[in-house]
Amino acid sequence: MNPPLERNRKFTAALLLAPMVLLLLGFLVVPVAGVLRSSFLDGDYLLEGTGFTVGHYLRFFSDSYYSSILWETFVDGVIVSLICLVVGFPTGYSLARLPPLARRWRTIIVILPLTLSLVVIVFGWLIILGRNGLLNSVLFNLGIISSPKTLLFTRPAVILVLVQQFLPFMILSVLSVVTQIDPVLEQAASNLRANRLVTFRRVIIPLATPGILVGCNLVFVLSISAFITPRLIGGNRVPMLGSLIYERIMSEFNWPSGAAMAFILFVAGLGFTAAFNALAASRLVMGGRLHAR
Amino acid sequence: MRDDFSDNVMKMAGAVVRAVVYTMLALPAVLVIISSFTSGTSMNFPPPGFSLQWYQRAFESEPFMKALWTSTYVAVIVSFLALIIGFAAAFAINRFSFPGKGLLQGLAFSPLVVPAVVLGIGLLYLFAWMHLTQTMLPLLVGHLVLAIPYVVRTVLASLSLHNRVLEEAAMNLRATPFQVIRRITLPLILPGLLSAAIFAFVTSFGNVTVSVFLTYGGNVTLPVQLFTYVDASYDPLVAAVSSIMIFVTLAVILTIEHLIGAERLA
């Protein structure tokens, strides 16, 4: 290709990419940087702060109330990811191995919670878990309980609803890697007299690890930053970092402090997933060496 | 033979897990729809009888109908803009070679990893500083950012799947690059483009986690209106409005499924 044409192509590529790059720089990178900057402002009210202080961060880490909420939020994130993995993996795997027609309706059921507004799903759970809701009336009619139990405003309820919301991400991540695993490999394993469990452990899991990791990361990050679900399902009794930030900013208008907490959430979440991925990758490499031996 | 037992246990456990998973995924939406037809005045389950009164109330409710209009308006504009911006970027990523391509792809998908709270307050802060919180602009821009990854992913997938022989043939017949794109490429990937636009529509239409921070000025979307309503109290009116959202979303999913097939829906 001659030089002027080559330059022309580069110019065209830049022109095509410019709108997206400008949009994301201006309205994703700049706002995140703005949150970082405003978290160092001295002051407690919306847009009134000036100067530079690390006070909001210091207060967060010195107050055991906040650190315990940060800890609980992360524990919840890990629990939700694990449950999603344990129930999402078999579902995603079987979905990948189904004939197209059988797959159709199941895929729609999996996609629906993703595309449906979060509020609608949470509202559905309020109908199930409410005092006069479905679960209470079923348990009552079966004679298991004699009076309606309070199921909402508990941590297990929040975890259950988070699992349902984010499970589709896990199922789809697993689905996308399993469809790339050739079924011949499983037949080969079974010809070599491996049973399902061994095939699963030695063939499918190692090959599906990238999808498992993507799914776990997505579910974890989404769970720790959740605030609609903890607020509506958990009330004030199940505080999570996301709902705390929402309240700090939208009800107390304490901007710098809320921004500091949001940034802690962002960085801690990134750090946690990066560490998890590095660990998983090193385990995988070592595991590969062991198998090769 | 000795392995039969563990095989059977796994088979049965898998069947149970799948049944629970599909029930759990569908249950909230199904219950919302059932509750919306209640003749009672509270959210007790099971509902005492059938009526359409809450739908009538929903269509008569001014805040909800205004919010439905705002949501639709924003979602239509967002899907249109996201499609143009996302297609241009995906086309450049797919057909041109340039340094830093990996980084650019990372940037395109980065809205997925930034927590909604961080993006929401960041945008609120930015638009407050520009004195634009009273306009529809924060919602439009916020939803546009959120829709980009979905559009880029869908368009990239259809660009890399379609056969380029026809484009080469057209070029051999001396069609200009513009003619090739307009007459060959775009018609061929039309289903992919439509589903990308629809993905952008649903992303915008259903979003609440970023929108709550951007409806400060009074342009309230339907999910945010529902959130503030449920936060205070809830009655079958919410069920009726939520059912309307479910019907819209379901219609949209079925459309995409029809366009590109279930196996590419994911």
TrEMBL record, chain A:
| Record's keyword annotation contains Secreted | no
Query: Which Gene3D superfamilies does the annotation name?
Result: MetI-like
How does the UniProt record describe the way this protein sits in the membrane? Multi-pass membrane protein
SUPFAM superfamilies in the record, alphabetically?
Answer: MetI-like
Q: Which InterPro entries match?
A: MetI-like, MetI-like_sf
- Report the residue ranges that make up the ABC transmembrane type-1 domain in this protein: 70-276
Q: Which UniProt keywords apply?
A: Cell membrane, Membrane, Transmembrane, Transmembrane helix, Transport
- Membrane-spanning intervals of the chain: 12-36, 74-96, 108-128, 157-178, 203-228, 259-280
Per the record's keyword annotation, is Membrane included, yes or no?
yes
Q: Tell me where it resides.
A: Cell membrane
Family, as annotated: Belongs to the binding-protein-dependent transport system permease family. CysTW subfamily.
Under PANTHER family, the record lists: ABC TRANSPORTER PERMEASE PROTEIN, INNER MEMBRANE ABC TRANSPORTER PERMEASE PROTEIN YDCU-RELATED-RELATED
User: Which protein are we looking at?
Assistant: ABC transmembrane type-1 domain-containing protein
Q: Could you read off the lineage of the organism from its UniProt record?
A: Bacteria, Pseudomonadati, Pseudomonadota, Alphaproteobacteria, Hyphomicrobiales
Automatic annotation (TrEMBL), chain B:
Q: Return any one Pfam family short name.
A: BPD_transp_1
Topology with respect to the bilayer: Multi-pass membrane protein
The membrane spanning regions, by residue number, are 12-37, 73-94, 106-128, 140-163, 184-217, 237-260
Q: Where in the cell is it found?
A: Cell inner membrane; Cell membrane
Instruction: Give residue ranges for domain ABC transmembrane type-1.
Output: 68-256
Q: Would the keyword Zinc turn up in this protein's UniProt record?
A: no
Where it mainly occurs, coarsely classed, is: membrane
Show the InterPro entries listed in the entry. Answer: MetI-like, MetI-like_sf
Q: Which family does the record assign?
A: Belongs to the binding-protein-dependent transport system permease family.
> PANTHER family, from UniProt?
INNER MEMBRANE ABC TRANSPORTER PERMEASE PROTEIN YDCV (PTHR43357)
Identify this protein by name.
ABC transmembrane type-1 domain-containing protein
Organism expressing this protein natively: Mesorhizobium ventifaucium
Native organism taxonomy: Bacteria, Pseudomonadati, Pseudomonadota, Alphaproteobacteria, Hyphomicrobiales
